[in-house]
Specification:
The chain is α+β, with helices and mostly antiparallel strands and about 250 residues long. It folds into two domains: about 100 residues, Rossmann fold (3-Layer(aba) Sandwich); about 130 residues, Probable inorganic polyphosphate/atp-NAD kinase, domain 2 (Tumour Suppressor Smad4, Sandwich), CATH 2.60.200. It contains six helices and 17 strands. It is elongated and about 60 Å long. It starts with a strand and ends with a helix.
Length: about 250
């Protein structure tokens, strides 16, 4: 039998107990597959917790938003895992610069820069060392992976990316100037640098998924191909299909 480790949000404790009683609990070290019960936020937490451990993650929805999760069922779990389709994803590496020196973090969804006060942020954007936007006046800006393109990126009117696209989405958040700039699609190997203009007057925070660095002066973002994580999806309901279907939803 496949060795499983079950983890979940507080509201899923009864379901976790039933699954452990039915399929056993190998523990996080010995498990071959991690089964996560919760919503999309908990899936991101699980991806971060098991980064570099080489264990596929299979999520079941017991939360509010479950775009990254499979349907919750107990009875045929082993059969579903055997037939599951794999999606291999890579995180973004964020290096945030500030008064206390550089801070690194990873993001599977997006790296976002956000204004901290009533003052709009002023941000200069360079891609692969070449300035592209000399002064973006905005509430913020983000770089999204394909897996994160249906999350904050979509809410900010960014494009949805197929899961296997070698692309990143660069999307402004409530841009005031340049007013007509709607963002850009970048090759996955692109290196993006954000420089915060008037950072003392217009402070900006940088967020990699749920990790925040306040009062940044510059932020570097690039895909980290050295790290890969595998997510498992029920046959016929893989992440490719979900992302495609999202583009035709109401």
């Amino acid at each position: 039998m496949t060795k499983l480790h079950f983890t979940g949000v507080p509201d899923a404790q009864d379901s976790l107990a039933e699954l452990r009683a039915r399929y056993g609990e190998a523990g996080p070290q010995a498990a071959e597959i991690v089964v996560a019960l919760g919503g999309d936020g908990f899936m991101l937490q699980t991806l971060h917790a098991f980064t570099g451990k080489g264990k596929p993650i299979y999520g079941m929805n017991r939360g509010t938003v479950g775009f990254l999760m499979n349907e919750y069922r107990q009875g045929d779990l082993l059969e579903r895992l055997t037939a599951a389709e794999r999606a291999v994803i890579h995180p973004l590496k964020m290096t945030a610069h500030g008064a206390s020196g550089p801070v690194e973090a990873r993001a599977f969804n997006e790296v976002s820069l956000l204004r901290e006060t009533r003052q709009a942020a002023k941000i200069r954007i360079a891609v692969d060392g070449k300035p592209r936007i000399l002064e973006l006046i905005c509430d913020g800006v983000l770089v999204s992976t394909p897996v994160g393109s249906t999350a904050y990126n979509l809410s900010a009117h960014g494009p949805i990316l197929p899961i296997d696209a070698d692309l990143l989405a660069l999307t402004p958040i409530s841009a005031f100037r340049p007013r007509r700039w709607r963002g850009a699609l970048l090759p996955h190997r692109a290196k993006v640098r954000f420089e915060i203009l008037e950072s003392a007057k217009r402070p900006v925070s940088a967020v990699a998924d749920d990790f925040e660095v306040r009062d940044v002066t510059a932020v570097d973002v690039a895909e980290d191909r050295a790290i890969s994580m595998t997510m498992l999806y029920d046959a016929g309901h893989n992440l490719d299909e979900r992302i495609l279907a999202e583009q035709f939803s109401d």
